[in-house]
Amino acid sequence: MNEAPKLNSFRAGPDEEGRFGIFGGRFVAETLMPLILDLQDEWNKAKSDPSFKADLEKLGAHYIGRPSPLYFAERLTAELGGAKIYFKREELNHTGSHKINNCIGQILLAKRMGKTRIIAETGAGQHGVASATVAARFGLPCVVYMGATDVERQAPNVFRMKLLGAEVKPVTAGHGTLKDAMNEALRDWVTNVDSTYYLIGTAAGPHPYPEMVRDFQSVIGQEAKEQILAAEGRLPDLVIAAVGGGSNAIGIFHPFLDDEGVKIVGVEAGGKGLDGDEHCASITAGSPGVLHGNRTYLLQDGDGQIKEGHSISAGLDYPGIGPEHAWLNDVGRVEYVPIMDHEALEAFQILTKLEGIIPALEPSHALAEVIKRAPKMGKDEIILMNLSGRGDKDIFTVGKILGMGQ
Amino acid sequence: MTARMEKRFADVAAEGRPVLVTYFMGGDPDFDTSLAIMKALPKAGADVIELGMPFSDPMADGPAIQLAGQRSLKAGQTLAKTLELARLFRGEDQHTPIVLMGYYNPIYIYGVDRFLTDALEAGIDGLIVVDLPPEMDDELCIPALKRDINFIRLATPTTDDRRLPKVLENTSGFVYYVSMTGITGSALPDPSLIAGAVQRIKSHTELPVCVGFGVKTAEHARAIGASADGVVVGTAIVNQIASSLTEEGRATDATVPGVEALVKGLSAGVRAARLAAAE
Ligand SMILES: Cc1ncc(COP(=O)(O)O)c(C=O)c1O
């Protein structure tokens, strides 16, 4: 064909059909197809609408508290004795994680589309809380689907959602974790097509969600890039983030994808180890398949049945991963590695004691990888890590494991 | 094989009545019982069989079919075994069309080419794959049509006139009209609304239109059959099976006869449909 050659870029995806290489796409029931096409139209319009951008920026600055700080972790750096470690402090955002960046963007879209009801799925409850928060802020009723197991282990967040006026529906199907919650949210959406906006919490699902969520979260990487240039006069050598569905990771990675000198690492939940079934390392230990509207790496058996994952952190407990990560892995731009439960727990405690920051268990996985790599790097090298959320929601889980009993 | 489906629809139309399409989950509650159920269906009056392929994450299904899938998987069902069910059934019955219904991932993992070869060999006539809309036709629909296997698409209340041609473009065998926006097992909407929707679809296609989701009783079958070319009954059959099982989910002497009795009733319903319409 006569198409001009595409720029040699890792940031050009997805294509018109929502594909990143073989990954992504729109694998949904016909009932939902017109809805995601409408959403795509509205998203395309919003992207080039200055008033949409202005609303996002205003709410970002005054409601979320953006830009989030870039923090040089001096004591951790000294302790590890290698590369300089910087945290992008998404845990200081309103509601305590990066999830709110996406929620503000999507609820503005829901409003533009005239939707009157919000549904969301949640694992750790951070996305549920962020959804309940923006629903309260914009005066829309909100139903959050949450696996019954997660309702138990993330009790503080369940309480917050309820206080914010959301209805939390525990899902008992399967193992009662994030994938089951997503199934149930999709069933709700298929039933309530006219009124309801499905606010997906991660960079997965059918097109246009992976692209849209990435764009809303890319503010993390854009700010971090400016901030690190201001602080150090150069780009980092290594960017690291934890990967559940992949939204905080793609948010910080995306603006750096075309910067050749920047190595990028995504950290998956290795659970109790990759030998058995008790992990959530979709890329390192899974294979390509189709679930929840997109083709991506999945934990599955030889018959294509999806397995239940396991992670100490509810937010990483998803047997899939956003399609753009699947592609970035296959083209070799990003390296994905697993971190075990116990390594994340150790990292959690190190950060708490050395820097006075209680991280969520999700970014504790990224931190564990930082702790492995920093000592092997030179003192003039720089690591940038996405500290995607605070650990308030996890203190009871961790307390129990550490025998600090209540 | 597309010819078997065409012939069955033509023969039933010649009888002046709608087609009865019956769904059950392959391998529920176990392989042998589900084979017995499958064999019993045409004898009780089913014209077309929809054979469910279990999937761990059935996003478009209600609790009844979710549980049926879980029972089936727990009993060791796989896609290969579901094809084996069809093959064993074909040994006895060469006339009743079989449509496989389920989700894409198990087929994708089995391998599309290998799947189509084995499906043809097992005597499969059509496919309904819930999570493959027309936008994804290159995945399975086009390869299936090339191999002479029908690809039956769902049209729904959200499929408006603008979108309908796209949905119908590569549809073959029949069109499956989903009576409502919702999951399987929900309540049936007003039959007069459905009749209007069926007319709308028929103005765009020569294919027969079958209506499913929410059809549970002989009376439903009669009412829907008055306007549609066929009715699809799924959850009612799955519920009938579930209600016959032991607490541990095992088959009993009542399992197969229960399905037979239900389908006989439904069959009487579709046989009365046009009589009712003529009244
Ligand atoms: C703080 C935090 N980080 C990371 C994640 C993982 O999600 P994602 O991979 O979409 O960033 C979660 C999910 O709940 C979370 O709460």
**What would the average pLDDT of chain A be, to the nearest integer?**
95
Instruction: Tell me the structural class of chain A.
Output: alpha/beta
Low-confidence stretches of chain A: none
Distance between the termini of chain A: 67 Å
Rg of chain A, nearest Å: 20 Å
Reading the helices and strands of chain A in chain order gives: EEHHEHEHEHEHHEHEHHEHEHEEHEHHEH
What's the total count of β strands of chain A?
A: 14
Write the layout of secondary structure elements.
The complex is a heterodimer of chains A (406) and B (279).
Chain A: E1 19-20, E2 23-27, H1 33-47, H2 50-64, E3 70-72, H3 74-80, E4 84-89, H4 99-112, E5 117-122, H5 126-138, E6 142-147, H6 148-153, H7 155-163, E7 167-171, H8 178-191, E8 196-198, H9 209-217, H10 219-232, E9 238-242, H11 247-253, E10 263-271, H12 282-285, E11 287-291, E12 293-298, H13 323-330, E13 334-340, H14 341-355, H15 361-373, E14 382-387, H16 395-401
Parallel strand pairs in A: 4-14, 5-6, 5-8, 6-7, 9-10, 9-14, 10-13
Antiparallel strand pairs in A: 1-2, 2-12, 3-4, 11-12
Helix pairs in contact in A: 2-4, 4-5, 4-9, 5-7, 9-11, 10-11, 14-15
Chain B: H1 2-14, E1 19-25, H2 31-44, E2 48-52, H3 63-74, H4 79-90, E3 98-102, H5 104-110, H6 112-122, E4 126-129, H7 141-146, E5 150-151, E6 154-155, H8 164-169, E7 175-178, H9 191-202, E8 209-212, H10 218-225, E9 230-233, H11 235-243, H12 255-278
Parallel strand pairs in B: 1-2, 1-9, 2-3, 3-4, 4-5, 6-7, 7-8, 8-9
The structure holds pyridoxal-5'-phosphate (PLP).
